[in-house]
Specification:
heterodimer, B: mainly alpha, 69% helix, binds adenosine-5'-triphosphate, binds magnesium ion
Chain lengths: 265, 439
């Protein structure tokens, strides 16, 4: 009873509370994955509703990256079902393309294309995947580059930008495809401390606009500020899942308590 | 203030202005002392190299220039016993034979056609290689479509005279192809209109090409058996270079493909072709190519070694390109895939431009090797530059002791100029790319 009540208040304090009946953006049902003999994902069940912000944490090697990479099929799952925006991921290439068009991803190491300018990085996919005219694509790209506060870098190459700027370009590049879901895989962990904030601010902005987000991160301040749910993973399993308030104040599982004790000091 | 002070607390109060570096010693003497004689070992090496240069350079200069004979009409000019002083290179021989070296036995009144071919080739190469040239897309169309057709017509005389039956067959095949593509499009659920336009464009391009080849331009036909010299060397090298890169890329992609059949086929092809000497490939192409094709399609004598060199170079190119592909970080593939690019788009826009850039030195190395290997086509009876020199140097009219050396020196100079040009160009491109962007 008590925990229910506090869940309610936590939800109400958020500007955009998630309607529990909102459509599912990502459904993972009994998902398993193996790398050879190694069982990386074990019975993952997760339902992400549209507009929901999920933060995933857990020790290194626990399968966080693998899990979110299954959502846009950078990794293939071997058992269970994954449905993204109503499209089930199978070996059908057409469906995979469809899902990838709707799901943006931001990586730890940015993965910008070093041989293209910032603007070209942002317009390539809209032009070739969405068949958008070049002019429109550039206009949209400039809009998002302005949003991440680096329009003046448009004609530089990625190698000429700082890490934080590169990561913001990576976010803008994904946004140019107008995705319905954004995946973040430790977007700030390759950055110098003073650049972390500029990237997190961008992500908070996105969250406030109602983007569906799944974010692997150990930035617990960010989790507290924007997450609707925090997921803790270990040994390829979801060990605990709760609202941030409950998760940090009152962790239930032994492993979660150990982990939090380590990262929160 | 010059001694180091052991301090526990320190806060800088003044700012040190930037100052120029301490004056470096200048002047040739100082430079030599620093760079050539800085240590006993260095001094020894310098002296050894100077001695080597002293041994090598003067005789070479004497042979090539000082004692060389520049004018003359026959062996009398180049024989020591006739002119009465030591004779070096007999450039008069090269001057007299230069037409033969350039065109082989191509009929003299028709040689202007070969000259136009050289000019067209130079234009195409320049257009493509000059990175800031205008309309390089048109340049590619020119080099890969207009130039081959024009060269074919110019050099052979065109006028293939296909006959009506051929054109009827072509029309039927073309219509069937268009129909098939449209059918495939409707099956795959893609736009039928796009498929129709694409198919019609392909058929039209092939048709126009064939029509040009068929057309009688009134040029005297010149069989390939008369072609020779630099013409053939450049032709074989150009065809080899132009085909080896795209085929090499396809083979490299095939070798990394997830489809086992494709991968196996690529591996077998690459390993087999790389595992046998070029001479073997050439001889096989010469004798076996006609066996694979229907008996009535006589494969031209010159086409066989062209196919052989192209195949051989592709296998090497494939491995060079594969090296570049392997150097690409996984993140580049993932970045491209996460944006929804499909495999061809990812390869063409993201992976290949970067992978090929990494292996420019290897690609140019393969080109240079290929360029020199073209001299092996003489083994299967093709009259390239080396063969032309070989057959001229035994001309009794020019029987003189230094004739052979002169001929080989000319060949060396020719090959060196082209290979050195390629090498310089690749260095220039690498520098430009390095300046353009850093990782
Ligand atoms: N391609 C692969 N082949 C084999 N094993 C892999 C592969 N990729 C990951 N693994 C293993 O799978 C496990 C989970 O990896 P994953 O990258 O999902 O961990 P993670 O939770 O993201 O860790 P981190 O916090 O270090 O990024 C790890 O033990 C890793 O060694
Ligand atoms: Mg990870």
């Amino acid at each position: 009873m008590i925990s229910m009540a506090s869940t309610m208040t936590a939800q109400q304090t958020r500007s955009t509370a998630i309607d529990p009946r909102a459509e599912a953006a990502v459904e993972m049902i009994g998902v398993h994955k193996w790398y050879g003999e190694f069982h990386v994902l074990r019975d993952i069940n997760l339902n992400v509703r549209r507009g929901e912000r999920i933060v995933i944490c857990g020790p290194s090697g626990s399968g966080k990256s693998t899990m979110i990479r299954c959502i846009n099929r950078l990794e293939e799952h071997q058992k269970g079902r994954i449905v993204v925006n109503g499209t089930e991921l199978t070996n059908d290439l057409k469906r995979i393309d469809e899902v990838r068009r709707d799901v943006g991803m931001v990586f730890q190491h940015f993965n910008l294309f070093p041989h293209l300018t910032i603007l070209e990085n942002c317009t390539l996919a809209p032009i070739w995947v969405k068949k958008m005219p070049k002019k429109d694509a550039e206009e949209i790209a400039m809009r998002y580059l302005t949003r991440v506060k680096i329009p003046e870098q448009a004609n530089k190459y990625p190698g000429q930008l700082s890490g934080g700027q590169q990561q913001r370009v990576a976010i803008a590049r994904s946004l140019c495809m107008n995705p319905k879901i954004m995946l973040f895989d430790e977007p700030t962990s390759a950055l110098d401390p003073e650049m972390v904030k500029e990237v997190l601010d961008t992500m908070v902005g996105l969250a406030e606009e109602g983007m569906t987000m799944l974010c692997v991160t150990h930035e617990m301040g960010f989790a507290r500020q924007v997450a609707d749910r925090v997921i803790f993973m270990d040994y390829g399993q979801i060990v605990e899942m709760n609202t941030p308030d409950e998760f940090f104040k009152n962790p239930q599982h032994e492993r979660t308590r150990q982990f939090l004790a380590q990262i929160l000091h | 203030m010059t001694t180091a002070v052991d301090m526990r607390h320190y806060v800088r109060s003044d700012k040190i202005e930037a100052s120029p570096p301490p004056t470096l010693s200048r002047g040739p003497l100082a430079w030599m002392r620093e760079n050539l004689f800085s240590s006993p070992l260095n001094a020894l090496l310098t002296l050894a190299v100077l001695y080597l240069l002293y041994v090598i350079i003067p005789p070479v200069v004497r042979f090539l220039f000082l004692d060389a004979v520049w004018t003359g009409t026959d062996r009398a000019a180049c024989r020591e016993d006739m002119v009465g002083h030591p004779v070096g290179a007999c450039w008069a021989f090269v001057v007299e034979k230069i037409n033969f070296f350039t065109y082989g036995s191509y009929p003299a009144p028709e040689r202007w056609r070969v000259n136009i071919f050289f000019l067209l080739l130079a234009i195409g190469v320049g257009w493509l290689l000059w990175l800031r040239a205008p309309r390089r897309d048109l340049g590619a169309v020119y080099f890969f479509w207009v130039f081959p057709i024009a060269s074919y017509i110019l050099l052979t005389g065109g006028n293939a005279d296909f006959g009506l039956g051929f054109w009827i067959k072509f029309a039927v095949v073309g219509l069937v192809l268009i129909g098939l593509l449209a059918g495939a499009a409707s099956l795959l659920g893609t736009s039928i209109r796009t498929a129709l336009i694409a198919a019609a464009a392909i058929v039209a391009a092939v048709g126009v090409t064939l029509a040009f080849i068929d057309w009688d331009f009134g040029l005297l036909p010149v069989p390939t058996s008369l072609w020779g010299g630099i013409l053939v060397t450049l032709l074989v090298a150009t065809v080899g270079i132009v085909f080896s890169l795209p085929f090499g890329i396809l083979l490299a992609l095939g070798r990394r493909s997830k489809l086992p059949i494709l991968r196996l086929a690529s591996v077998i092809f690459i390993e087999f072709v790389r595992g046998v000497p070029l001479i073997t490939v050439l001889i096989m192409a010469n004798t076996m190519l006609p066996l694979f094709l229907p008996p009535d399609t006589g494969v031209d004598r010159l086409v066989r070694p062209l196919v052989g060199t192209a195949i051989f170079a592709s296998a090497y190119m494939a491995e060079v390109v594969r090296g570049g592909l392997q150097a690409m970080p996984k993140g580049q593939y993932e970045g491209a895939m996460s944006l929804g690019l499909n495999y061809p788009q990812m390869m063409v826009f993201i992976i290949l431009p970067q992978a090929l850039r990494i292996v420019i030195p290897g690609i140019v190395n393969t080109f240079i090797g290929l360029f020199k290997d073209t001299s092996l086509v003489s083994v299967v009876g093709i009259f390239d530059l080396i063969r032309a020199i070989e057959s001229s140097r035994i001309d009794p009219n020019w029987a003189a002791p230094t004739i052979s050396y002169t001929g080989y020196a000319f060949a060396a100079l020719f090959y060196f100029i082209f290979c050195w040009g390629m090498s310089r160009y690749s260095i220039g491109v690498e520098r430009r790319l390095a300046a353009g962007q850093t990782r």
